[in-house]
Amino acid sequence: xxxxxxxxxxxxxxxxxxxxxxxxxxxxxxxxxxxxxxxxxxxxxxxxxxxxxxxxxxxxxxxxxxxxxxxxxxxxxxxxxxxxxxxxxxxxxxxxxxxxxxxxxxxxxxxxxxxxxxxxxxxxxxxxxxxxxxxxxxxxxxxxxxxxxxxxxxxxxxxxxxxxxxxxxxxxxxxxxxxxxxxxxxxxxxxxxxxxxxxxxxxxxxxxxxxxxxxxxxxxxxxxxxxxxxxxxxxxxxxxxxxxxxxxxxxxxx
Length: 254
What we know:
Elements: E1 6-9, E2 13-17, E3 23-28, E4 31-34, E5 39-42, H1 46-63, E6 70-73, E7 78-82, E8 85-86, E9 89-96, H2 100-105, E10 112-122, E11 131-132, H3 134-139, H4 145-167, E12 171-185, E13 188-194, E14 202-206, H5 216-219, H6 225-235
Antiparallel strand pairs: 1-2, 2-3, 3-7, 4-5, 6-7, 8-12, 9-10, 9-12, 10-11, 12-13, 12-14
Helix pairs in contact: 1-6
């Protein structure tokens, strides 16, 4: 079997050349990072869980007409995805005050926000992914105003879907982050959801107890990250209710 060419390696995933033009293979690592990678660890099974959860959510979004880069899951750690031109922005949608917005604005964590709030962050690890405005985005040509309008509409549709999905299994969607990218059909451009949607990129709280079921477990040393992610997977019907920990699957060989 020919060695695949690596295209990009990030903190949690690796992209390889896909089997067909216009595709990539996205590999989910077990690496966990927080505070702009100042805190890091390897959590066995994390990549498997995120792969399965992101597959479940991206497939459902495709099914309701929200376009994503996801094509299909290949195995326990890999997905086949569409190649997109990534817009260098993290798009954060907040429903409940938590994390940085609580610190910035002095809002008590857990306080419901008056409406979903969308924030943009420029993707640059060296700069700490700074928060930016629409003015910055247009001025520096990261996206034009029509792109921004499309991204906001897409983010709100994803928020509506995820809020209902998680509410149905007893989980509150506090906030989440998505990335978006451009694809072209001839001269026609579309903005689609890219990257992943998983407990790595969402804040998820149990509705009854407030237990955190997301990466804050790792950030704040609140227990087992795989136990939290497994609980999300079980509630979504991805893992059987009596499952304990997913098999890690094949290890990446560099």
